[in-house]
């Protein structure tokens, strides 16, 4: 099956641009609803950070290091590099007896406007703490201390990444066909959209075992600390707040989005074929409204879907809307 | 016919994201080559600024105001809001006895890093001169002085916009089905991809009449002043320099791109369905290479297509590549 039309950008009376993709909703038993091609192979990118954090908990490394839920939320985050994120990761590393040069995520300018402005106007370069993945990497370093691995913990054959791969294949229920190198240099294992949705459904239906306990704790950490998972003005933070912490959501680069709905026992995964984040944000919003867990009138929901788009003079020019037939 | 696959983003061994679209190459007699659906109706957005500038020349307004080729390039520009652009538009308005508040384009932060930084770090708001369309609007104001129209020259029924509409329908050879409001508040008339390519072919094959003279002068202005049409580091400026001024190219929002090839007598228009600029830039690069006017090894060409994409640590993660069958 081809990709399904999901989100349209309207300007005046014309649909100006169109976004298609693949989306799957799973419960504990399998696929409940799907659009496009569930078997499409994708890189989950940052949407699978809660999977990448499983070995951190299951190994006992998180408890040995005394990690808080706030730190676990940060391990699952693509944060904005705001002061609160940078300070939290810095403190985490200090607690491990490590520091910024031990990270292997590289640098990029932070999204957070205040921190971006501070760096820009003081002619300062960002450090690795600013990297949106620095919390995930602090988690990798915590696991690495436990596993006594070498310093280059992002190499695909390193014990940390091999542990991540094993957990990833177990929760997706698939043998990964391979990996790509992510923006933060960690390997990102490929899976199908259905496999990613299946994994999210497992997070939504955690068992009493060690893995289930780890899943429950990570989901609760994300839902309790939405400001740590992304940042002010970001879709993940806004959507989790809009749903009152009932649902955990996570974006990934190139237009992946997942959601974990513990009360409904459902997991969602979607990928917009062209990689446009505006469309993955609108599509997950549409699916969360469809499932009755997000109010379509919520300001964050409106901002991501159906709300008026304004131009440089504040004139309404159009809107992002559901394509016909999506999601119903 | 559906849209044609054009540009793929590869990461590792997997095609991570895909971009499809519509592209047409015309000569003076009609369609030479096409991909996707030539009859697809689109908004040309800023790609049609050389069409929007035709009444400025044909009316005699440009000569009455003594406009230079540098100013005409700016009338066709989506500029970066660098100091040279802001100063040029400011001087143009002063020459008309007008000033910034007479513009109706609104404000946005400039792309130019130095000017963006200057405004950010001095807590200054951008003015309308920074708007990437301010040169087009200075052209509208020049025409408006000639036509003795009212101050709200962006209203669709204003004589300036009616003159633009007439020129647009004549050179595309189509009756426009309607307009959308552009980012700069001017009406943007819809046409087919084929109609836009036909218009570009007319610019590439200008006749001896008043219109042909206007077309030739605008194309020469763009090719002679690539730094005014966009700015340093931008695709239009880089591609025109890479082709030694032989070809005029222009981008438009939501992934439209056009090219005018006077030596070959060809015009190109393309629209990426999803609106991704990375794909429209890669696709026009592929077509210019295909037509033998751009060296695939040129650094700008490599940056836009096929060149390695690096992550936060400088590791190569993938590349934007032609989809199978595009363009050959």
Describe the structure.
The structure is a homodimer of 328-residue chains. Chain A is an alpha+beta fold. Chain A has one domain (4-322): Beta-lactamase (3-Layer(aba) Sandwich), CATH 3.40.710. The first copy, chain A, has 14 helices and 12 strands. In chain A, the strands form 3 sheets. In chain A, strands 1, 2, 3, 8, 9, 10, 11 and 12 form an 8-stranded antiparallel β-sheet that branches. In chain A, strands 4-7 form a two-stranded antiparallel sheet. Chain A has a two-stranded antiparallel sheet with strand order 5-6. In chain A, a hairpin with a 5-residue loop joins β5 and β6. Chains A and B meet through β2, β4, α6, β5 and β12 of A and β2, β4, α6, β5 and β12 of B.
Give a topology summary.
The structure is a homodimer of 328-residue chains.
Chain A: E1 4-11, E2 14-27, E3 30-35, E4 41-42, H1 49-52, H2 54-58, H3 61-64, H4 69-75, H5 83-95, H6 113-121, H7 134-147, H8 159-172, E5 179-181, E6 187-189, E7 191-192, H9 193-204, H10 210-224, H11 226-229, H12 235-242, E8 248-252, E9 256-261, E10 266-272, H13 277-290, H14 299-304, E11 308-310, E12 316-322
Antiparallel strand pairs in A: 1-2, 1-12, 2-3, 2-10, 4-7, 5-6, 8-9, 9-10, 11-12
Helix pairs in contact in A: 4-7, 4-10, 5-7
InterPro entries (chains A, B): Asparaginase_II (IPR010349), Beta-lactam/transpept-like (IPR012338)
Pfam families (chains A, B): Asparaginase_II
Organism (chains A, B): Paracoccus gahaiensis
């Amino acid at each position: 099956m081809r990709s399904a039309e999901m989100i349209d950008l309207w300007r005046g009376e014309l649909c100006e641009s169109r976004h298609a993709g693949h989306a799957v909703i799973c419960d504990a038993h399998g696929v409940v609803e799907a659009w496009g091609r569930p078997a499409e192979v994708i890189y989950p990118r940052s949407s699978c950070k809660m999977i990448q954090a499983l070995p951190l908990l299951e190994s006992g490394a998180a408890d040995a290091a005394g990690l808080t839920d706030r730190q676990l939320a940060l391990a699952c985050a693509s944060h904005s590099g705001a002061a609160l994120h940078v300070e939290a990761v810095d403190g985490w590393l200090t607690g491990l007896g490590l520091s910024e040069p031990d990270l292997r995520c590289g640098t990029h300018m932070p999204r957070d406007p205040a921190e971006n402005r501070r760096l820009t106007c003081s002619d300062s370069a960002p450090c690795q703490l600013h990297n949106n993945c620095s919390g995930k990497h602090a988690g990798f370093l915590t696991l690495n201390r436990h596993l006594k691995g070498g310093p280059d913990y992002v190499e695909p054959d390193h014990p940390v990444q091999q542990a991540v791969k094993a957990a990833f294949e177990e929760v997706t229920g698939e043998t990964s066909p391979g990996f790509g190198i992510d923006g933060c240099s960690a390997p990102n294992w490929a899976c199908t959209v259905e496999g990613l949705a299946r994994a999210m459904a497992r997070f939504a239906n955690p068992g009493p075992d060690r893995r289930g306990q780890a899943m429950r704790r990570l989901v609760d950490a994300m839902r309790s600390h939405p400001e740590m998972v992304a940042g002010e003005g970001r879709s993940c933070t806004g959507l989790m707040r809009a749903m009152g912490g009932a649902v955990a959501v996570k974006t990934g680069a190139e237009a992946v989005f997942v959601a974990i709905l513990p009360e409904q026992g459902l997991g969602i995964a979607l990928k917009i074929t062209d990689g446009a984040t505006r469309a993955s944000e609108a599509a997950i919003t549409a699916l969360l409204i469809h499932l009755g867990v997000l109010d379509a009138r919520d300001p964050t929901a409106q901002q991501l879907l159906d709300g008026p788009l304004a131009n440089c003079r504040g004139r309404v020019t159009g809107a992002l809307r559901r394509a016909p037939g999506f999601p119903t």
